[in-house]
Design a protein that fits this description.
By secondary structure, the chain is an alpha/beta fold. The chain is built from 6 helices and 5 strands. Strands 3-2-1-4-5 form a 5-stranded parallel β-sheet, with helices on both faces. The longest helix is centred in the middle third of the chain and has 17 residues. It starts with a strand and ends with a helix.
Amino acid sequence: MQIAVCPGSFDPVTNGHLDIIGRAARLFDKVVVGVFESMDKKPLFSLEERVKYIQLAVEKDLKLDNVEVESFETLLVEFAQKHGASAIIKGLRAVSDFEHEFQMTQFNQKLDPSIETVFMIANTQYGYLSSSAVKEIAMFGGCVEGLVTSEVREGLRKVFQAKKGGH
């Protein structure tokens, strides 16, 4: 059985992320989406909320039965080893993504050379899409339809309404 892990902070999960997850699920027998806390960012949604949003999308929108979602607090290589994964899936939007991911791939290869990193280029309709951009658009009341699932859209609305002191 070919198993891959697809890691990310997913704060929030976007349709671009879901596209990569869906494409990976066609290539591998099993994909484990690993949600982690980014050391560089203060999350808008809790780890549990992010896992829930991805699980809902995988079941309801993507309708995939070979994808699992869980959080992790270890090295990515250890998470991959725990699941018996032979590959790490990483989505790339631009050259700037590649530079960072290339460096991380070299670290991961040093830690476990048996685990390959597979880069998947973002679908052109999602090449510009990032969680940060979605949060900024939502914060200013802009429309994020088509960028995230309806559940994430509602979650963003609630978070930013609460921050503004609304109901």
